[in-house]
């Protein structure tokens, strides 16, 4: 005799369905279970839904994996590119340093042979290669003094002093020279007060320099009007 059972619970796997039916005064025995088409339809839809969820999860996991691989590839490429840039930078700096030394040596030789204009041009090139070396401005100031480019001598001496900071024992000699060269240019322009200030600054660095002391005294006498305007 067929019975319609509504009070039941069930679980299922992909291949089996387990149905628990409460027995109320009925002896358990072998039974056949029939389900309606509606249940079969719902079961099929549920199976499809589960399969779609699994497929979506699989696609999502695949996409995330591909994205991770792409990210790793880009990071590796950037790392290699950075290494290439570092190597190129080192090679460029090495070549630049070599060019600096070559140009500086050429400038010194030109100055020693009194070819001051060519020395200025050589120092111009050296400064283009490295504009942060105070010795280049200091030496170019000496060239300008020889050529009587007095305003340029003042400008280069001032630039050298700007770069010779902080004032320490290692750059004391260069700072003294910069003050003397700027002071000399000021005096050549008959700006004796400014020139004396630079000579006094040089004497603070090297107070025992007899030549600078003597020149400073002459500048004082010129300012006081006791000697002709010449050093």
TrEMBL record:
Q: Per the database record, which ranges form the CS domain?
A: 3-109
Q: Where is the signal peptide?
A: none
GO BP, sorted A to Z: determination of left/right symmetry; epithelial cilium movement involved in extracellular fluid movement; heart development; inner dynein arm assembly; outer dynein arm assembly
Q: Name one GO cellular component term.
A: extracellular region
GO MF terms on file?
nuclear estrogen receptor binding
Write out the coiled-coil annotation as residue ranges: none
Q: Which UniProt keywords apply?
A: TPR repeat
Which PANTHER family does the UniProt record give?
DYNEIN ASSEMBLY FACTOR 4, AXONEMAL, DYNEIN AXONEMAL ASSEMBLY FACTOR 4
What is the protein name stated in its UniProt record? Dyslexia susceptibility 1 candidate gene 1 protein-like
The organism's taxonomic lineage, starting at the top: Eukaryota, Metazoa, Chordata, Craniata, Vertebrata
């Amino acid at each position: 005799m067929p019975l319609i059972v509504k009070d039941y619970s069930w679980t299922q796997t992909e291949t089996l369905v387990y149905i628990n039916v409460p027995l109320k005064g009925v002896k358990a025995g072998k039974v056949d279970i029939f389900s309606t088409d509606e249940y079969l339809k719902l079961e099929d839809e549920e199976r499809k839904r589960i399969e779609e969820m699994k497929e979506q999860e699989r696609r999502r996991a695949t996409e995330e994996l591909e994205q991770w691989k792409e990210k790793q590839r880009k990071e590796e490429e950037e790392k290699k590119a950075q290494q290439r840039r570092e190597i190129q930078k080192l090679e460029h700096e090495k070549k630049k340093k070599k060019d600096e030394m070559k140009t500086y040596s050429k400038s010194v030789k030109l100055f020693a042979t009194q070819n001051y204009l060519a020395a200025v041009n050589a120092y111009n090139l050296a400064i283009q290669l490295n504009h942060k070396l105070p010795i280049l401005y200091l030496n170019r100031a000496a060239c300008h003094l020889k050529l009587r480019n007095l305003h340029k001598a003042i400008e280069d001496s001032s630039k050298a002093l700007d770069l010779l900071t902080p004032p320490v024992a290692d750059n004391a000699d260069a700072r003294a020279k910069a003050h003397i060269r700027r002071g000399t240019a000021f005096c050549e322009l008959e700006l004796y007060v400014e020139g004396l200030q630079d000579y006094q600054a040089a004497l603070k660095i090297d107070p025992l320099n007899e030549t600078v002391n003597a020149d400073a005294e002459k500048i004082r006498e010129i300012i006081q009007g006791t000697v002709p305007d010449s050093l």
